[in-house]
Specification:
Layout: E1 2-6, E2 10-16, E3 30-36, H1 38-48, E4 53-59, H2 61-73, E5 77-78, E6 81-82, E7 89-96, E8 98-103, H3 111-121, E9 129-133, H4 144-151, E10 158-162, H5 165-169, E11 178-179, H6 183-189, H7 197-209, E12 214-218, E13 224-227, E14 233-236, H8 249-263, H9 270-285, H10 293-303
Parallel strand pairs: 1-4, 1-9, 2-7, 4-5, 4-6, 9-10, 10-11, 11-12
Antiparallel strand pairs: 2-3, 7-8, 12-13, 13-14
Helix pairs in contact: 1-8, 8-9, 9-10
């Protein structure tokens, strides 16, 4: 079973306007509402491949209820912690030439709430896979993902961590199965601006030395590269298409990569997983929402 955890989910409100005029009333051409958050996005793209998962995290208020109902309505099992105060955030994405984002803060998560999440995660069994994705609400320590993995260290669980900065670094001693920084995040971890695949692989190797089992690095228009558990390098070029949407592409890559590991022939084929992950990320980038399976498969054909 796959479990995804999203600490700070959101309802994404996409507003399409021909010309955004600050200080004036702007009439929308169209609008969309999506249930978002990195772990939730992973669950939704996994569902496109028929792979079930359970979405966990924190929700609050009337917006939290709407988000939970929306995720469940998409056929995903949920087990969120309900917070006593605040509201799940709303992110406003204004689409008018350049994209302008207004991201909500979200509710505060207290230690007692975190304890309830730990209790829910106790159901994980040997062989399960846990995805920890995205940022965390203010007030929590940057070791919160590491603490989750430490509590589960007695079980044979594969962990996937898609996070940045200290939040990611503090998990490495627990040997996560997969981490997925983009090339900018990878450079930021070392205080550098990386250029070229060789340099990216050098610093991906440093993360392996620090404990990561597999390191997947997305490189925008340059595709993606994977340094796998055996030290082998796999590279995949970028898909061809027009970028329409920056939200969820990295999460879709994670989901596609995991789907590739499960559905490849044979299962566990890292080269195929990288291709399917790249196709899934590209399909979302070229869509207004998260990728659909047929869109992913069309781009996969480009990479074959």
């Amino acid at each position: 079973m796959i479990y995804t955890v999203t600490f700070n989910p959101a309802i994404d409100y996409l507003a399409y306007v021909e010309e955004m005029r600050p200080g004036n009333v702007n009439r929308l051409q169209s609008e969309e509402i999506h249930c978002g958050g990195k772990g939730i996005n992973v669950s939704q793209v996994l569902r496109e491949f028929g792979i079930p998962s359970r979405a966990l995290g924190f929700v609050a208020g009337f917006t939290g209820k709407a988000l939970e109902e929306g995720v469940a309505g998409n056929g995903i099992e949920t087990d969120f912690v309900h917070l006593e105060r605040g509201c799940t955030r709303i992110n406003v994405k204004i689409k008018s030439g350049l994209e302008t984002d207004l991201n909500g803060r979200g509710p505060e998560v207290e230690e007692k709430d975190l304890a309830r999440l730990h209790e829910k995660l106790e159901v994980l069994q040997d062989g399960d896979l846990l995805v920890l994705a995205g940022s965390i609400p203010g007030g929590l320590q940057k070791d919160v993902y590491g603490r989750i993995l430490e509590r589960l260290s007695g079980k044979k669980i594969r962990a996937v961590v898609d996070a940045a900065g200290e939040l990611l670094l503090n998990t490495l001693k627990h040997r996560p199965f997969l981490i997925k920084p983009n090339h900018q995040e990878l450079g930021d971890l070392f205080g550098l601006s990386l250029s070229g695949v060789d340099q990216i692989l050098t610093y991906a190797g440093k993360l392996k030395e620090m404990g990561a089992v597999n390191v997947l690095v997305s490189m925008a228009g340059d595709g993606a590269v994977l340094l796998d558990e055996g030290g082998r390098v796999h590279r995949c070029g970028a898909c061809r298409g027009r970028v329409r949407n920056s939200v969820g592409a990295g999460d879709s890559m994670v989901a596609g990569f995991l789907a590739g590991l499960f559905t490849g022939s044979p299962p566990g084929d890292y080269a195929y997983a990288l291709k399917l992950g790249t196709a899934a990320g590209g399909a979302t980038a070229f869509s207004d929402g998260l990728a659909r399976r047929e869109e992913i498969e069309a781009l996969l054909a480009q990479l074959s």
